[in-house]
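Consortium newsletter contribution from the modelling node. Members have asked for a concrete example of what our holo predictions look like. Here is one, prepared for the guanosine-5'-triphosphate complex that several groups have been discussing at recent meetings.
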Amino acid sequence: MQSHGSSLEALTRWVDEVARLTQPDEVVWCDGSDAEYAGLVAHMLKTGDLHPLNATTHPRSYLHRSHPSDVARVEHLTLVCTAEREDAGPNNHWMAPADAHAKIDALFDGAMRGRTMYVIPYCMGPIDSPISRCGVEITDSPYVVANMRIMTRMGAPALARIEREGRFVKGLHSIGDLDPERRFIMHFPDELTIKSIGSGYGGNALLGKKCHALRIASHQARHEGWLAEHMLIVGIENPQGDKYYIAAAFPSACGKTNLAMLIPTEGYRRAGWKVWTVGDDICWMTPGADGRLWAINPEAGYFGVAPGTGADTNPSALATLGHDAIFTNVAVTADGQPWWEGLGEGTPVTDWQGRPYDPANGPAAHPNSRFTVSARQCPSWAPESEDAQGVPLSAIVFGGRRPSLVPLVFEAKDWAHGVLVGAAMGSETTAAATGAVGVLRRDSMAMKPFCGYNFADYFAHWLSFDRPGMKLPRIFHVNWFRKDADGRFMWPGYGENMRVLDWMIRRVEGLARGHETPIGTVPAPGELNVEGLDVPPATLDELTRVDVDGWIDELNAIGTYLDGYGERMPERLKAERLRVSRALDAAQ
Ligand code: GTP
Ligand code: SPV
Ligand code: MN
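And here is the predicted structure:
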């Protein structure tokens, strides 16, 4: 650890160096105050970076329209720059660090001329938690500053912690000229450094989020014995007042925010069940002295998907969005309210690009339009989100968009099997990243775009938690997205997912025997609470059935996928796949 003061010296030196390279007109150190935020908003309302919304229905809320070519993450331009290509793995795009620095520094040369350079100290996680980590983002985008203010603990307290600790992640960002040809998001895990240019979009530009809290943090976590994951954290309180915490990894735009804010259906509510939101996107897990995994949400806000968020699907999110929110690339109604497909009320008059709405141009809101809002505004916000030690996990859930084959829910036999289930995850691509939508691909643990190192080493790291003294969470897999022959979802999802969480908790408590199958344990007939559920029995049977022939093919495809990682793939995982394959053959 560096001595007191030297860290700020290092920080100041880096800020000076960046200013010399990027040549801004002005350098502003952000303190995170309300007055600073209000000043930024006023400035952006003048420049057109923000547009006012209806101040009666949406106090202090604003619309941002991004460049139409800058609306999502860009995986092909996102690089992990380790000395050895193999350390980044086939799951990442790679460039040698020296080449990467040279390439991107040339783009940063003079990039901030005529602009203000903001220095943003931030803390990922509760400001006084030993698990939390700090960073500093330098950016020329006031929109990024405003979003970082909502998404992280930003400003003076973070700077004080950086001065005390002497360590922080360096993140340099410029919107550049927004030309996709000059857009890169580069990570240098060994230098705890991020450089991003050419995009103002969330995951590419809010460097505390995916770049720091997942790609850099996963690399640190591997060496320090913890896990940085693309997971929500939800607390479920039963009528007796016991709380169970569950973390769930679903790929981008596959239901984390919705499950984290779930409102139990009426029967559960009447019986006294409550659901608490700890986090909706990122989870840092650390083994505690008691052998359990303890989880914190490193973020302070939600950068959530707007489309599909309605009074019938996620009323908690709508309540959260009642004031002090930033909307990006949504449509607007005649009276200046934000609007998106699935909202359920209102009529769009202006689309996400600011044009008069014409259905011939596609959806009114961009499919990856988003809201940014403080987590504390959520009615189900869990006060334990601020607990320094985090919350203890009872279960980990994996899941993706699988239109066929994969049952509603099953439980892995043990930790190693659970790691295989997570590694084997598949999901249809979504609008959260540029490229084709609806293409089934492997997205191990929902970390394909976010793991800062070789997936084979990552799976080995996951397996390493299975050791004496650990009291590991149970591992489940869910699929809310099965479709029937007509392409309609077979499971109603959203609040009804409470029925699946309830079964998981009964499994944890030893109160549901389940039905063992070669792929894992599914609910035995009668175990899933279906009271008042509007799903035909034949559909429910189909949702919990294991199609042995289909799964034999799936396990073969998983084998091919794991083999793609060559020698580095842990034998334990290959053996686990073989075990499941053989069990399926025996059941045929
Ligand atoms: P990121 O922020 O991109 O990491 O996404 P996320 O995992 O938080 O996804 P989110 O909860 O925002 O959901 C994305 C889309 O899936 C939205 O359009 C939701 O309405 C839809 N969705 C969420 N849960 C369900 C569900 O249980 N069933 C169905 N059919 N759709 C769902
Ligand atoms: C995701 O794409 O998984 C998100 C949005 O949560 S972003 O922060 O842009 O990555
Ligand atoms: Mn995400």
